[in-house]
Amino acid sequence: MTYGAALIPPPGGVAERCAGNVKAAADLHSIVKPAGAGRPTGLSELSENEIQKAVFKHLRIRGAKNAFWFHPKNASADMAGRKAGIHFALGVEPGIPDVIVIKQWSIHAPGGPKYNRVYALELKRESRRGKKKTRHEMRQFLCRSALERCGVTVGIAYGLDEALAWLEQHGLLVGRAA
Predict the structure, then answer these.
(1) Do residues 9 and 66 touch, judged by C-beta distance below 8 A?
(2) What's the Cα-to-Cα distance from 83 to each of 90, 98, 178, rounded to whole Å?
(3) Bridge partners of 155?
(4) What is the DSSP code (8-state) at residue 1?
């Protein structure tokens, strides 16, 4: 099952992928705006779901070559009782970050040895920055720590702009958001 990416990335760069696809170019333009741009005053900030949808649009349109991304559909943080027991038995791990990207890199030159790198990004609303950590956020911290000990590159992004910047910094998005 594929959540966000085709197993074989489309050939060519972003311009080639979007050539002739006016809707994809328009969609990308609509989500490239900085946070708050084009939003009338008084509207609330982007929710985590809205941030996540925008991040995956960016990955679909300008994701790096040889990368596979997905969102791990985990159970709700406040689940209790029988459902919590079922999810525990199924291996659901509370606190897994929202965006997982696996990227293949070449060590030296094209055709040289290859290795894979795993990236995990937790998305937060901008208003969560600096707030007291909830019990769920403490579990997320423990999960991110365990992932880091296993060699996963882990990050937290507050808002869409930070999320896109983190993905660009790690070479997972081609180009820069305007």
Answers:
(1) yes
(2) 11, 21, 43
(3) 121
(4) -
Domain ranges for the chain: 14-169
Which CATH architecture describes the domain 14-169?
Answer: 3-Layer(aba) Sandwich (3.40)
Candidates 77, 55, 4, 73; CA nearest to 173 is 55
Strand order in the sheet with 99-106: 67-70, 99-106, 114-124, 153-158
Amino acid at position 165, single letter: A
Q: Where are the strands (E) in 12-162, listed by range? A: 67-70, 99-106, 114-124, 153-158
- Dist CA 87 CA 84 (whole Å): 5
Mean pLDDT by 10 residues, the chain (178 residues): 35 42 47 47 78 96 95 72 81 88 83 87 91 85 94 96 96 86
- Please count the other Cβ atoms lying within 10 Å of the Cβ belonging to residue 162: 19
- Helix, strand, coil in percent for the chain, rounding step 5: 40, 15, 45
pTM above 0.90, yes or no: no
For residue 146, CA distances in Å to 132, 138, 157 come to 22, 13, 18
Distance (Å, rounded) from C-alpha 48 to C-alpha 136?
15
Residue 70 · residue 100 · CB < 8 Å? yes
Structure tokens at 108: 């030296």
